[in-house]
């Protein structure tokens, strides 16, 4: 893994996103990621978390604002180029090739970094064979062993239980050699044991490989236990951000509850009309 440069690694400046001409999904979203940090995006369903992920990774193009990666403006950079720069991600819904083996799915994550041309790949000699051998060795010795999935590396993904499929998807993201690992609800649908295992792996990735982690998650216990910095979205707007303690203090001060939950930070029911939330002045931590 590449060592992240000192200073800001990603900066979002007044990022907005619209679907069509009248549906605003993100509005003036601004925050900064620093190398080696553990960041959580949280909020209720429909708050804009996955849309923000898709904007960061290049699947969506923002309607306003800018995104900078290590000082470079990547607002208009296509998704494959962003992956090559060091933005790796998993998906909320499992996006593996179910007819392929675990190992082959993971190897696809390195595709953006391969130097083999089409002719080399078709004939499979020389550079293509050496690159394939190096890729397989790196994945087997580092990623597969690290995530404890050696026993299933030749199994078809379709034969695996849900929890292991989520682990394979994380392995594919790590194969991209990311400087920022973006995980979209990596423990959703898992039982307690699977959740604890995944949390351990994510912490180890950050501590042992120095990767910056940006994660979408609803589990507020996990958010409070693991994160350095929390960003709370509601209807596409940042309504609070800061350390877990700072965000919890906002909840306690303005909503009379020192046990932070998503509901605490939403001053209206989820089925209410989609009006913008009105927080007291100064509630958002910048």
What does this structure look like?
The longest helix has 20 residues, at 127-146. The chain folds into 2 domains: 1-86 and 179-286, P-loop containing nucleotide triphosphate hydrolases (Rossmann fold, 3-Layer(aba) Sandwich); 98-176, no CATH class. 35% of the residues lie in helices and 21% in strands. The strands form 2 sheets. A 6-stranded mixed sheet has the order 6-7-8-3-9-10, with helices on both faces. A 4-stranded antiparallel sheet has the order 2-1-4-5, with helices on one face. By secondary structure, the protein is of the alpha/beta class.
- Our measurement of the CA-to-CA distance between the termini, rounded to an integer number of angstroms, reads 31 Å
Low-confidence stretches: 1-5, 262-286
Main sheet: strands, sense, barrel: 6 strands, mixed
**CATH architecture descriptor of the largest domain:** 3-Layer(aba) Sandwich
CATH superfamily of the largest domain: P-loop containing nucleotide triphosphate hydrolases
Evaluate the radius of gyration.
20 Å
Supply the number of structural domains. Answer: 2
Strand content: 15-25%
Order of helices and strands: EEEHEEHEHHHHEHEHEEH
